[in-house]
Write a structure and sequence with these properties.
Layout (H helix, E strand, L loop, with lengths): L1 H4 L7 H15 L9 H15 L2 H10 L6 H14 L30 H11 L5 E6 L4 H20 L2 E6 L4 H7 L6 E6 L2 E4 L6 H11 L5 E3 L5 H6 L1 H4 L3 E6 L6 H9 L5 E6 L6 H6 L8 E5 L8 E4 L5 H9 L6 E3 L3 H7 L11 E7 L6 H14 L4 E7 L4 H7 L10 E7 L5 E6 L8 H16 L6 E4 L11 H22 L2 H26 L3 H5 L5 H21 L11 E2 L5 H6 L6 E7 L4 H12 L8 E7 H12 L25 E5 L4 E5 L33 H7 L5 H10 L5 E2 L8
Parallel strand pairs: 1-2, 5-7, 6-7, 10-12, 11-12, 16-18, 17-18
Antiparallel strand pairs: 1-3, 3-4, 6-8, 8-9, 11-13, 13-14, 14-15, 17-19, 19-20, 20-21
Helix pairs in contact: 2-3
């Protein structure tokens, strides 16, 4: 372990921790794409686990191994050979199969560590379920279930189920986070939710357990009576519809897993061809009842858009088939995610992708224009050209940004656009006349597309689009109801399956509440009767006393915080003033630092000044800002000390190196070496704050005064510092969580 971390045997714990953090950042699999990065990272973690524990470190220094019983066993081994040199046992006799050095190599590729679980497995559980085994050394029951586990893991992995193994001896943090207090334990993970397996470990039970993890409405049973209704829902759901024809009476697990993985893009139906009542359906589409057949239906339900047949449907074959048919021919833009997938940002001149957008309305009035556009799209769709449509009344901001001329009012229009960046900037060209679907319109559009191949400058207009509304998102009340049902289900399951260790906190809380309740009743019942005979003060006197007390405390608090200037002085934190403004800051003083970038500097400084202005009267507070573009590494080093081991966020950032820390605020206590952290609110969390552009007091001036903007992007950035003033209140009260660090890092 000393060699792995690159430290000496006399190194202090601070040096070991510093070396570990440096190597962990360098070899983290999310940052280092080297094929051996993951193995190296595991070695670093195991080395730090030994050297950070004084007992294990002492065992290693003394016996060359970190095991708790190694000292005794090696001493006995030497003593045995000393007194009984003529007596010999074959050492292989003592190598039990559950020893850590003789673990089954089949589990090695499934081993999980905490960061890998948090950053990759949990986000991936929204696409496929995971079956995870918790094991350890010297576990007899683990040996017993190993043959069944091998067979089931191999079978389910081929179907698309994720497999994981957690070694509780090396990954105690992860095992504790998962709630596994004994080994072996088996659990399922889906949509970030953990469910424990409580039945006998046999193949049928494990398959049924994985199947029960999946939602029950993924695949609809289709017959002659409902197939037209099912296929006609493509317009309402804005998805292609998939039909699988097979002779199995129950839906295969492979098909359910596929439906879960593609549920955001496709709707799935299953036809049991051996069932009476499916003859018309089989005849309609000329189905071979002896061969499994999968069909994709898009805008036309009378004929499939694509078909695949195979006697043995494999996962790879199905994935290739579905990934090529995830969208309708002319999909409707119903949310920002769909817009980004269909119209991606160009990465180079050779990878230009253009979108032809039909801006239209709902109803029979616009049906003819839509059908003509669909016909044109079928004949001209290419890899570099996507056709989509949008309803003007459902996405008014999108339509208003592209159609500024009143001549398009109440009519359909066609726009060719290209996304330039992820911030919403596009280049576009609108057809000069409204789209009616005539032959002349078709010729004009075809001519423009031909010119676009050779002249990208044809898209001469530019604008910035706001994010699209999510038209298909469920209402807040429905989302709240689903959350409540999930919570009740979890509580019900925990009530019957939790062990005593898990139930102790709940029982302790319950008995404490009962004790306080009955204790209060008993104290009141046996209190001195003379207390009750004492006349209480009159209501008027009591009110006056309370008012006087509150006024006194309020005036005292207010006087200590009255701003002494008509502006907020905010200094940039650089390597020049770093020591004076932080490292050597006087005891009792704190520096409140705003994190910003060059692009957000003006807007964030204005909002920051407004939020902290009322606290500038405090002589112990200093205000600064830090450039994220210059000092990202310094900030990420500090934030490592603020990570929480237990909670996992609902959404995960796939671009680890491009995290947006703008809007973060740190209150740094240089003398005591700790900081408090303010994380910005997501845009749109507070409904009323995004609707209007905030007006700033003319008496407030910052060094970064710039032009005020009412653009959606400006409102979104300002909203990051929403409720910062409440956070400042808690900072002065001393009720915020503090994150301590060994020493302040250098600000290069």
């Amino acid at each position: 372990p000393y060699r792995v971390l690159g430290v000496g045997r006399s190194s202090s714990q601070a040096d070991i921790k510093k070396a570990y953090k440096r190597l962990a950042r360098e070899w983290h699999p999310d940052k280092n794409k080297d094929p051996g990065a993951e193995d190296k990272f595991i070695q670093i973690s195991k080395a730090y686990e030994i050297l950070s524990n004084e007992e294990k470190r002492a065992n290693f220094d003394r016996y060359g191994d970190a095991g708790e019983s190694q000292g005794y066993s090696q001493h006995q081994h030497r003593q045995f050979h000393h007194f009984h040199e003529g007596f010999y046992f074959d050492e292989s006799f003592f190598h039990f199969p559950f020893n850590s050095e003789r673990r089954d190599t089949s589990d090695e590729k499934y081993l999980l560590h905490f960061s890998h679980y948090v950053n990759e497995i949990v986000p991936d559980s929204f696409k496929k379920p995971y079956l995870i085994k918790i094991t350890s050394d010297w576990c007899f029951s683990c040996i017993h279930i190993e043959p069944v586990w091998k067979e089931v893991a191999q079978e389910l992995e081929a179907l698309g189920v994720g497999i994981g193994v957690v070694h509780a001896g090396y990954e105690r943090r992860l095992a504790h986070h998962l709630g596994a207090h004994s080994t072996p334990s088996l659990l399922g993970l889906i949509n970030g939710k953990i469910t424990f397996f409580h039945n006998a470990v046999i193949r049928e039970n494990l398959r049924q357990f994985v199947e029960n993890l999946l939602p029950g409405n993924l695949v609809e049973k289709i017959t002659d009576k409902n197939y037209i209704r099912f296929l006609s829902n493509w317009k309402k759901e804005n998805k292609p519809h998939v039909l699988l024809f097979d002779h199995m009476p129950v839906v295969p697990l492979l098909y359910k897993l596929t439906a879960f993985a593609y549920r955001d893009y496709l709707s799935f139906g299953y036809v049991y061809v051996g069932l009476r009542g499916t003859e018309e359906l089989s005849s309609q589409y000329n189905i071979n009842v002896y061969t499994p057949t999968m069909m994709i239906f898009k805008e036309h339900i009378d004929r499939p858009a694509d078909v695949v047949q195979a006697r043995d449907m494999k996962k790879q074959l199905i994935d290739d088939f579905l990934s090529q048919n995830k969208f309708l021919i002319v999909a409707r833009l119903t949310n920002q995610r769909l817009f980004q997938e269909l119209c991606p940002v160009k990465k180079s001149h050779r990878q230009r992708k253009h979108c032809v957008v039909l801006l239209t309305g709902e109803g029979d009035k616009f049906a003819e224009a839509y059908e003509a556009f669909l016909t044109f799209a079928v004949a001209n769709t290419k890899d570099t050209l996507k056709f989509v449509h949008i309803y003007n009344d459902r996405q008014p901001e999108f339509a208003d940004a592209l159609l500024m001329d009143e001549k398009y009012q109440g009519k359909s229009a066609v726009v060719i656009l290209e996304r330039r960046n992820n911030a919403g900037k596009i280049a576009y060209k609108t057809l000069e006349e409204a789209w009616q679907g005539s032959k002349e319109d078709n010729f004009i559009l075809l001519d423009l597309l031909d010119q676009l191949r050779t002249d990208p400058g044809l898209l001469s207009s530019e604008t910035v689009l706001a994010d699209l509304n999510d038209e298909l998102a469920p209402m807040f009340l429905i989302r709240w109801l689903y959350s409540m049902l999930d919570y009740i289900s979890d509580c019900w399951d925990s009530l019957f399956h939790s062990n005593w260790r898990e139930m102790m906190p709940l029982l302790s809380l319950l008995f404490s509440a009962l004790f306080i309740l009955f204790g209060t009743v008993i104290v009141q019942a046996f209190s001195d009767s003379s207390d009750t005979r004492d006349s209480p003060p009159s209501e008027k006197e009591e009110t006056a006393a309370k008012t006087e007390k509150n006024d006194a405390s309020f005036s005292k608090e207010t006087n200590s915080r009255i701003p002494k200037k008509g502006f907020v002085e905010v200094t940039e934190l650089t390597d020049i003033n770093y020591n004076s403004n932080l490292v050597r800051l006087r005891p009792g003083h704190m520096n409140v630092v705003l994190i910003l970038s060059n692009s957000t500097k003006t807007v964030l400084l204005q909002k920051f000044a407004l939020e902290v202005y009322t606290f500038t009267g405090s002589s112990s507070l200093h205000f600064s800002f830090l450039s994220l573009d210059k000092h990202r590494e310094w900030l990420e080093y500090l934030l490592e000390f603020a990570q929480d081991a237990a909670p996992i966020p609902n959404q995960y950032d796939k671009h680890f190196l491009e995290r947006d820390y703008t809007g973060y605020v740190l209150a740094l206590n240089g003398h005591k070496k700790y900081f408090c952290l303010f994380k910005p609110h997501r845009s749109g969390d507070e409904g009323g704050t995004l609707g209007s552009c905030e007006d700033y007091d003319s008496s407030l001036h910052t060094e970064a005064r710039g032009k005020s903007s009412c653009s959606p992007g400006s409102r979104s950035i300002k909203n990051k510092l929403h409720k910062l003033s409440f956070w400042m209140e808690r900072l002065l009260e001393g009720s915020l969580q503090r994150f301590y660090i060994p020493s302040w890092p250098a600000l290069d």
